[in-house]
Write a structure and sequence with these properties.
Blueprint (H helix, E strand, L loop, with lengths): L1 H24 L2 E9 L10 E5 L5 E6 L5 E6 L5 E5 L6 E4 L8 E3 L16 E3 L5 E3 L7 E5 L11 H4 L7 E4 L10 E4 L12 E4 L2 E3 L12 H4 L12 E7 L2 H4 L10 E6 L5 E14 L10 H16 L18 H6 L6 H4 L4 E13 L3 E13 L6 E14 L4 E15 L6 H7 L7 E3 L5 E5 L4 E2 L2 E6 L4 E4 L3 H7 L1 E20 L3 E20 L1 H4 L10 E20 L9 E22 L23 E21 L3 E12 L8 E11 L17
Parallel strand pairs: 1-7, 13-16
Antiparallel strand pairs: 1-4, 2-3, 2-5, 5-6, 8-9, 10-15, 11-12, 13-14, 15-16, 17-18, 18-19, 19-20, 20-21, 21-27, 22-23, 24-25, 25-26, 27-28, 28-29, 29-30, 30-31, 31-32, 32-33
C-alpha cells in the first residue's frame, strides 16, 4: 500500500513538473496601455520589448493610435522594457501578469536642444579612433558586403582590382599559390616587399623563415594569408601614405593592411549558412602545331638552314620507320600536352556562423570548409577554419574580449617548375605512355633521359625542375604537399581609468604555427639514370613557430573649453617575441618511384642531401606617441613618433625613430565657402 501511495505521489509530481515546464514554454500575450505622466495622453508608437535576464531582446512591438499594445512573451519571468524618444525608458518584471499599464516620465535633459552627429571612424590599427571626416591619412576601405559575393579563398584574391594603388599579382593560378601585394610600389628596409598585415589590432606574421623550406620558402610561402577566411572579415583598410604607416615602424615600409573580423551583435541568436561555388576553366590556349605538322616542319627548318636534310639516323624522332616499331609508335602521335595536364577546376566554400548576445556578453562563432580543385592536374586545396569572438562587459568601466582562430590547410601543388611552360614546348608527336618494341602501349610513362629536345636538369639551390620532362608524369606522380595548422588566441582588456577622459587597453596574442612540406621527384617523370641524385629525390620539412605579441595603450580624450577644438592622444607600448624550430631531410635514389618518403631506404651522400635542423629567435619592442588636434573643426594636424628596436639588426643599428606629420584643411568650413550650399565637405 505504501509503495502504491509513493508511486502515485511520484507520478503526480512528475506530471506537475511537466505541466509547469509546458506552461513556461507556452507564449502568453501581455496587454497594456502607455500614457504620459503629466497630461495622461496616450503615447503613440512607443517601443515595447521583452528582455531576458541578460538584457537581450526576445520580442517586441509598438503601441497603436490609442497607446495600447499586445506583446507575445515567451517567459513570464522576463522583463518588459518601454521606450520612446524624449521619455525615460521604463523597465518592469512581468511576474506572471497579463496586463501591465505603463506611465512614461519625460526626460528633462532630452528636452534641451541637442545636436547629435554620427560618422564613421577610421583606425590605423594602433588604437586611436578618429572620425573619417577628420582623418589626415590616405586610406581605402572595403566592407564585408563587397567581399561576400566573391568566390575568393583568400583575402589577396578578394582584393584584386578593387583598390587603387594596390597591385596584387601571382606567378601561378594554382590553389594555394602565394600572391604578392604591393602598396606604393616596392621599397624595403626589412628584406621583404610585402605589406604589414594587422589583424584585429595586432600584427599578423606572413613571413616564413627560409629554414622552413630550405631555399623555397619565398616561392611557396605556405600562402599564410589563407589562414584568414574572407567570410570572417568585416572590413579591410589599406594605409597608403608614409605618415600613416610610420606609426608601425620599420615593418610598415611597404604599406599596411588593417583587417577587422566580425563580432557579435545584441539580439537573439542568428544562425547563418553561406555557400559559394564556382567552376573555372583554362582559357583557350594559343594555336599549336599537332604532331603531323610538327614532324613536317622541323625537317624543313633544318634543311632550310644549311641545305642538308635532317639526319634521321641520329634523330629517330622523325624517322617514322614502321620497321622500327619502338620509335615509330612512340613518335608518331598527335599529343596535346596542354590538354593532358588540364582539368576543370571548381571551388566550394561552406560557412556556418552564429551571432548574438545581450548587453553583458556578445559572441560570434563560425566554422568554414573550403575545397578547391585547380585547373592543372595534381593541384588542390582544402581548408578548415574555425573562429570564436567573445565580448564581455564586466562593468561600465571594464570590458573583456577574446578571439580564438584555428586554421587547417591541406595543399597539393605541382613540383617546383614551370610545368605548363614545358607542356607548351613539348614535341607533339611524342606519346605520353611508352610503346614497347612490339608496338604495344604500356602503362609506363615515356620519359627518355634525352631526346631531340634535350634532357632534364635540376637546380639544387632552388629545388626546381628544369629542362624537359614528361609533364603528365610530373603532374600525376610528383609530390609537393603542404600541411599547416595555425592557432591564434587573442585576449583584450579595456579599463576606463577616468571615464570619458582616459582609458587603457591591453592586448596579448599567441601565434602557434606548424607547417609540414613533402616533395618527391620521381624517376619515371625525368628518365634520368639511377646513378644520379635527382632520381627519386624526396624531402621532408617541418617548421614550428611560436610568437607572443603584446600591446599596452593609453588613450587620452580631454574635453576642451571650445567645443570646436578637439584633442586626442595615444601612448602605445608594443613587444614581440618570435621563436622557430625547423627540421629537414633530403634523400634520393629510393628503389622505386612508388617509395616517395625520405624515411624509405635511400642515400644522403651528397652535400645537398642531408639531415639538418635549425632554430632562431627574434625580438622587437616599440613605443608610439601620437596626437591629433583639431582647431575650429577646420585645421587638423596629426603628429606621431615611433621608436623601434629589433634584434634582427646589428648593435649599431638596432634602434630607430620614425616621425610623421600630416595635416588636413577643411576648406568648406571657411567663411568664403558658406555661399556654396551644394558643397557639404571639402
Amino acid at each position: 500500500m505504501k509503495k502504491i501511495i509513493f508511486l502515485s505521489l511520484f507520478c503526480y509530481g512528475i506530471i506537475n513538473l511537466i505541466s509547469v515546464q509546458l506552461f513556461a514554454q507556452q507564449k502568453v500575450i501581455v496587454r497594456g496601455k502607455v500614457i504620459d505622466s503629466k497630461d495622461k495622453s496616450t503615447v503613440i508608437g512607443a517601443s515595447v520589448f521583452e528582455t531576458d535576464k541578460d538584457g537581450r531582446t526576445v520580442s517586441g512591438t509598438q503601441t497603436d493610435i490609442d497607446g495600447n499594445y499586445a506583446l507575445r512573451v515567451s517567459d513570464m519571468t522576463n522583463k518588459i522594457s518601454v521606450s520612446y524618444l524624449g521619455y525615460v525608458t521604463y523597465r518592469v518584471n512581468i511576474d506572471n501578469r497579463t496586463e501591465i499599464n505603463v506611465i512614461l516620465k519625460a526626460n528633462e535633459s532630452a528636452l534641451k536642444e541637442v545636436v547629435v552627429t554620427a560618422g564613421r571612424t577610421v583606425n590605423n590599427g594602433t588604437g586611436l579612433n578618429i572620425e573619417k571626416r577628420n582623418s589626415t591619412a590616405a586610406t581605402i576601405t572595403i566592407d564585408a558586403k563587397d567581399l561576400q559575393e566573391l568566390p575568393a579563398v583568400s583575402i589577396d584574391q578578394a582584393l584584386q582590382g578593387r583598390m587603387a594603388g594596390v597591385d596584387i599579382g601571382t606567378t601561378s593560378g594554382d590553389p594555394g599559390a602565394p600572391m604578392s601585394i604591393r602598396i606604393r610600389g616596392t621599397s624595403s628596409i626589412n628584406g621583404s616587399a610585402n605589406p604589414l598585415i594587422v589583424l584585429d589590432g595586432l600584427p599578423f606574421d606572413t613571413e616564413v623563415p627560409s629554414d622552413f623550406n630550405f631555399g623555397t620558402a619565398d616561392e611557396n610561402g605556405y600562402a599564410q594569408l589563407l589562414n584568414i577566411a574572407p567570410t570572417d572579415i568585416s572590413e579591410i583598410t589599406v594605409l597608403k601614405d608614409a605618415a600613416s604607416t610610420a606609426v608601425w615602424g620599420s615593418r610598415a615600409a611597404n604599406g599596411v593592411l588593417i583587417i577587422n573580423t566580425k563580432r557579435g551583435i545584441i539580439g537573439k541568436p542568428q544562425l547563418t549558412y553561406n555557400f559559394k561555388g564556382s567552376v573555372s576553366k583554362q582559357p583557350k590556349s594559343i594555336p599549336l602545331l599537332n604532331g603531323n605538322q610538327y614532324a613536317t616542319l622541323i625537317p624543313e627548318e633544318v634543311s632550310n638552314g644549311d641545305g642538308n636534310p635532317l639526319d634521321i639516323q641520329s634523330n629517330k624522332e622523325f624517322s617514322f620507320d614502321p620497321y622500327d616499331p619502338y620509335w615509330f609508335y612512340n613518335y608518331s602521335n598527335n599529343t596535346d600536352w596542354i590538354n593532358a595536364i588540364t582539368q576543370t577546376g571548381y571551388i566550394q566554400d561552406h560557412n556556418v556562423s552564429m551571432t548574438g548576445g545581450g548587453e553583458k556578453a556578445r559572441y560570434y562563432a563560425s566554422l568554414g570548409y573550403t575545397n578547391q580543385q585547380g585547373t592543372t592536374v595534381g593541384t588542390d586545396l582544402k581548408r578548415l577554419s574555425a573562429k570564436i569572438n567573445l565580448d564581455y562587459n564586466v562593468s561600465s568601466r571594464i570590458r573583456f574580449r577574446t578571439d580564438i582562430t584555428f586554421t587547417h590547410l591541406d595543399n597539393n601543388q605541382n613540383f617546383n617548375g614551370d610545368i605548363r611552360g614545358v607542356a607548351y614546348n613539348k614535341i607533339p608527336n611524342m606519346a605520353i605512355y611508352e610503346f614497347d618494341f612490339y608496338g604495344n602501349q604500356s602503362p609506363n610513362y615515356l620519359s627518355p633521359a634525352s631526346n631531340v629536345q634535350g634532357g632534364f636538369s635540376f637546380d639544387v639551390d632552388k629545388n626546381k625542375a628544369e629542362g624537359t620532362y614528361n609533364p603528365v608524369a610530373l603532374a600525376l606522380q610528383a609530390v609537393n604537399k603542404q600541411i599547416g595548422n595555425r592557432v591564434l588566441p587573442h585576449f583584450y582588456l579595456q579599463y576606463d581609468i577616468v571615464p570619458a577622459l582616459l582609458l587603457s587597453t591591453f592586448d596579448v596574442q599567441f601565434d602557434i604555427n606548424n607547417n609540414k612540406q613533402n616533395t618527391f621527384l620521381p624517376q619515371i617523370a625525368t628518365g634520368r639514370p639511377n646513378t644520379e641524385t635527382v632520381v627519386n629525390r624526396g624531402s621532408d620539412s617541418d617548421g614550428e613557430s611560436f610568437g607572443v605579441t603584446t600591446k599596452l595603450n593609453f588613450v587620452l580624450t580631454p574635453k576642451l573649453k571650445n567645443e570646436k577644438n578637439t584633442l586626442q592622444g595615444l601612448l602605445s607600448l608594443q613587444t614581440n617575441d618570435s621563436r622557430y624550430l625547423s627540421y629537414n631531410v633530403s634523400t634520393s635514389n629510393t628503389a622505386s618511384s612508388l617509395l616517395n618518403d625520405p624515411s624509405d631506404p635511400s642515400r644522403t651522400i651528397n652535400s645537398d642531401l642531408s639531415l639538418r635542423a635549425s632554430q632562431g629567435e627574434n625580438r622587437s619592442v616599440g613605443a608610439l606617441l601620437q596626437a591629433q588636434y583639431s582647431l575650429l573643426d577646420k585645421y587638423i594636424i596629426n603628429s606621431a613618433i615611433r621608436v623601434d628596436g629589433n634584434s634582427r639588426f646589428g648593435p649599431a643599428n638596432r634602434y630607430a625613430a620614425f616621425p610623421s606629420l600630416s595635416v588636413r584643411w577643411r576648406v568648406s568650413g571657411e567663411n568664403f565657402m558658406k555661399k556654396y550650399d551644394f558643397i557639404d565637405d571639402l
